[in-house]
Amino acid sequence: MRRLFLLPAVMAGFIAAASVTPAHADTATAVVGSLGPLTTGQQVYQHVCQGCHMPDGKGAMGAGAGFPAFAGDQKLLNTGYPIYIVLNGHGDMPWFSGMLSDKQIADVINYIRSSFGNHFPGKVTPEEVAAMKPTITMEDN
């Protein structure tokens, strides 16, 4: 008797799920709505990075992936390391070369290096980011 009662409920759930319009995640704006320009490192961090690295920069573990902490990470002392990682990706982190501008990348790295208790010297410039961008030629294809 219970099976007969559950069957209509399960079928109603399937019908409701099938009638929902699927989300299109072609871009970040498709997921979170219209975003203004990300003009500061903090804005880039909040909209691009903190979903994995957490609002407090302490990273997270889960879903078979590890998202490293920025708080106290001595690898951030050398500016070349975070530039390389943001441009090229590493492990579960995607690359952002071509997705973020050189200025946005420099700004977010500067934000990370001076936030979460970090006080690393020096600033990353968009020119340094541009100099480290991967280059692809027709011969590479």
Q: What report would you give on this structure?
A:
The chain has 141 residues and is mainly α. Helices cover 45% and strands 4% of the residues. Helix 3 (41-53) crosses helix 5 (102-113) and helix 5 (102-113) packs across helix 6. It is globular and about 40 Å long. The model is unreliable at 1-7 and 9-32 (pLDDT under 50).
What is the terminal separation in angstroms? 63 Å
Q: Give the DSSP E fraction (strand runs of 2 or more residues).
A: under 5%
Order of helices and strands: HHHEEHHH
Which oligomerization state do the chains in this entry correspond to? single chain
Mean pLDDT: 79
CATH homologous superfamily identity = Cytochrome c-like domain
Profile the largest sheet.
2 strands, antiparallel
Helicity, in percent? 40-55%
State the CATH topology. Cytochrome Bc1 Complex, Chain D, domain 2
CATH top-level class: Mainly Alpha
Radius of gyration: 21 Å
Helix run count: 6
Count of all domains:
1
CATH architecture: Orthogonal Bundle
C-alpha geometry: globular
In order across it, which strands form the biggest sheet? 1-2
Give me the count of strands. 2
Condensed summary:
This protein is mainly alpha-helical. It has helices at 2-19, 28-32, 41-53, 80-88, 102-113, 126-132, and strands at 60-62, 65-67. The protein has one domain (29-140): Orthogonal Bundle (Cytochrome Bc1 Complex, Chain D, domain 2), CATH 1.10.760.
